[in-house]
Amino acid sequence: MIQKLVIIGNGMAPGRMLEHLFEQAPGAYDVTIFNAEPRVNYDRIMLSPVLSGEKTYEDIIIHGDAWYEAHGVTLYRGDRIVEIDRAKRTVTSQKGVVADYDRLIIATGSNPFIIPVPGKDLKGVVAYRDLDDVDAMLAAAKAGGDAIVIGGGLLGLEAAAGLKARGMNVTVLHVMPSLMERQLDPAAGYLLQKALEDRGINVLCKANTKAILGDGKVEAVELEDGRIIPASIVVMAVGIRPNVQLAKDAGLAVNRGIVVDDGMMTSDGHIMALGECAEVGGQVYGLVAPLYEMARIAASHLAGDKTPAFVHSDTPTKLKVTGIDLYSLGDFAEGPDREEIVLRDATAGIYKRLVIKENRIIGTVLYGETADGAWFNDLKKKQTDISEMRDTLIFGQAYQGGSPLDPMAAVAALPDDAEICGCNGVCKGKITSTITAKGLTGLDEVRAHTKASASCGSCTGLVEQLMTVTLGDKYNPAAVTPMCTCTELGHDDVRRLIKAKGLKTIPAVMQELEWKTSCGCAKCRPALNYYLVCDWPDEYADDYQSRFINERVHANIQKDGTYSVVPRMWGGVTNAKELRAIADVVDKFQIPMVKVTGGQRIDLLGIEKEDLPAVWADLGQAGFISGQAYAKGLRTVKTCVGSDWCRFGTQDSTGLGIRIEKFMWGSWTPAKLKLAVSGCPRNCAEATCKDIGVICVDSGFEIHFAGAAGLDIKGTDVLGLVKTEDEALEVIVALTQMYREQGRYLERIYKWAKRVGHDEVRAQILHDTERRKAYYDRFVFSQQFAQVDPWSERVSGKDKHEFKPMASVGYGEAAE
Amino acid sequence: MNWKTIGHIDDIPLRGARCIKTPGMNIAVFRTSENEVFAIENRCPHKAGPLSEGIVHGKSVTCPLHNWVISLENGMAQGADEGEVRTLEIRNEDGLLSILLDQPMMVAAE
């Protein structure tokens, strides 16, 4: 039996649904459509070309009168449904038509959102939803003059471009800092804005509309900042709201949209909803692809096949403005678990960005050249692992062609002004010409001269490829500086592989990473020992034979083979008892030299190796532990007297310094780590040339890092300001741990920070609280194994062979 | 021949060294990762650094003062550095180590 199907709305979604239905179940339904608009079904996506004059209304009609006739569809034009009676299963129209249904489809679409400002109802304020709006704009354009578009999204910009094409002077007002911020990242937003401005469209971002002014009709728009911009027409394109009133009145479940299941069924088993008014899986949709998908599913269910179900998928966004190619898809927010590949070509106005997560594309922004959008979309949809083609991925499908992949060809094909290093704005031509002009052959040299890949390092591969293209065989792209002659691997690779392969002993590292020597050398062994101590604090057994003598005997070797000993003085604070104990030790062991160090403590020099355990025993009695003045680890925390004594002190710098030192002593780091805390910006503790420094200020604690005052002299950079001592400690500890985990052995913090980029450090330590906490926790975990006083261990007999000769022979015997 | 017992190989850490005192000089006795033993004068040809305190790798030791690398087999400085350390005879009998005393060891340095 033929059922009665009534459809409220005659937009693209129900139109497509009917096409499917007539194909799948011809003659199964007697169809009646009520359309509030006095028209047949036309392609709303093509309104912009109609506005700009590239197409006419006739061009964009989807279903002409004949189609409705051929399928026996009754179409009421310009007649809005005002009531649904679910009990009687009837609908009633504004003009009084009552129609009964077996099945009802609500496809009421959406309403433009009109911002509630004074003057919004003035004549000349229009939305951009249907052909009536376009007609209104065209009428205004005929008169010429000024037009304002409120909203810098997809629709707003298309309206602006159309009005401009019709000869109006157009200004776009956008609340957000960059255009189309939901589809574009700021870089592409900037290019888009420039392109629009080049066409003579004024773009004002961060522009808040306060009121629309005019007497009877629009004359101007007033902004919050007081600016008044004249206009004879104002187009509101700030967003849409699903049109749900009718469904709500009928008592259907309504959220943001009319709630439907994945078969498009509403809470009433006789009523379906689809299109922009429907909410499925908690989402409402505005782009045509998912709406057509809804249409396909609704048709299938009506035809009796209930298997298809609506599944969310990202839809690419394209801007339909002639001459502006723009493509955006998926999720392109930055995140710690994401990486990105970026290609910029300033001259050609090309910007491409892929956001990758776990070797899969999750987001794409293309500007200027969008041909590969579909291909990227395909890779994203299929969740293709892109690691194999990572090097050439950004160049698009054409470069993938036959295997093996040749990234060289792609790089060689780049124009000279293609940007290679985004951090430092270095283009290809600059790199290749510098290589040639200065005769550079190494990556480090190229970094030093051009800054390319010297910041975040993510373009290192490209830079190396450029070196190969430029130098040919003279450059070996694999030439990472090896750790030492025992291996081809650099420090970073070794660190990565230690973690990745779970290598937990030095022999395991040497075996698995194919060391060329049987037991390494004096360069790699201490480095490996540190990496293993750092990475497996609870499992790795420290190999003392791989430590430099100072760290083995916990004293500093001097030129004559004697040692110096520096007890820890927390924050540089001492007292009579401690000083007396030191004096007694000096007398007892006839220590020839006592010297105050730069780190605010006391150095005892010229101690015979054999005496070390006894010296430590006496110092230990007085409560001293090793100052680790020899360690690639935490050395000192210098302080000034701070608010306890100083008339300028703003915080308890002494207390904070002691707290930090007590928290961090015993930790091993890639190179020595010296800290200082100054109580005010006068900086008496000289915190601004330390590895990590704190300058106390009234409002809290300014954390500094990456200073140097040795071979190099370098002031610190500010990491950031925190309010409390607790936060200061957490930030400092987390920063130290990040450095511990990433630094190359013997690489001071300022060199490491330069290599990874100060912004990256800031992002991870200051802005990403979760990461900071994780770094902090790992440091704390490691400390339980590290905070053992090496002196008291040795006083109790550990490594006693170190301090005694194996034998004395030949004494009292006659020479032969 | 005057062989003097100095101790057991296990008194020396693997990839480590111990010191022997004699009236004439200090001797460094090394044990490599392969359990070979070597004896050389405990005095770097560069600035007299105590070689027994250096890191032992392969059949070489790196001086703790300025990183000269000295061959334990022939006492020659490795790489670009030039210099030589006296090597001494050492005997390993089932782990028991002895060295051959000679004139320079017996005469105290002036």
Task: Describe this structure as you would to a colleague.
The complex is a heterodimer of chains A (816) and B (110). Chain A is of the alpha/beta class. Among the domains of chain A are: 169 residues, FAD/NAD(P)-binding domain (3-Layer(bba) Sandwich), CATH 3.50.50; 114 residues, FAD/NAD(P)-binding domain, CATH 3.50.50; 69 residues, Arc Repressor Mutant, subunit A (Orthogonal Bundle); 57 residues, no CATH class; 157 residues, Sulfite Reductase Hemoprotein, domain 1. In chain A, 33% of the residues lie in helices and 21% in strands. Chain A has 27 helices and 42 strands. In chain A, the strands form eleven sheets. Chain A has a seven-stranded antiparallel sheet. Chain A has a five-stranded parallel sheet with strand order 5-2-1-9-21, with no helix packed on it. The termini of chain A are far apart. The model of chain A has no long low-confidence stretch (mean pLDDT 88). With 110 residues, chain B is mainly β. Chain B has one domain: Rieske [2Fe-2S] iron-sulphur domain (Rieske Iron-sulfur Protein, 3-layer Sandwich), CATH 2.102.10. Helices cover 4% and strands 39% of the residues of chain B. Chain B has one helix and ten strands. A four-stranded antiparallel sheet of chain B has the order 2-3-4-8, with no helix packed on it. In chain B, strand 9 and strand 10 form a beta hairpin. Chain B is globular and about 35 Å long. In chain B, 44% of the residues are buried. Chains A and B meet through helix 18 and strand 42 of A and strand 1, strand 2, strand 5 and helix 1 of B. Chain A: Its cofactor is siroheme; [4Fe-4S] cluster; FAD; [2Fe-2S] cluster. Chain A: Keywords: 2Fe-2S, 4Fe-4S, FAD, Flavoprotein, Heme, Iron, Iron-sulfur, Metal-binding, Nitrate assimilation, Oxidoreductase. Chain A: Belongs to the nitrite and sulfite reductase 4Fe-4S domain family. Chain A: Pfam families: Fer2_BFD (PF04324), NIR_SIR (PF01077), NIR_SIR_ferr (PF03460), Pyr_redox_2 (PF07992), Rubredoxin_C (PF18267). Chain A: This is Nitrite reductase large subunit NirB.
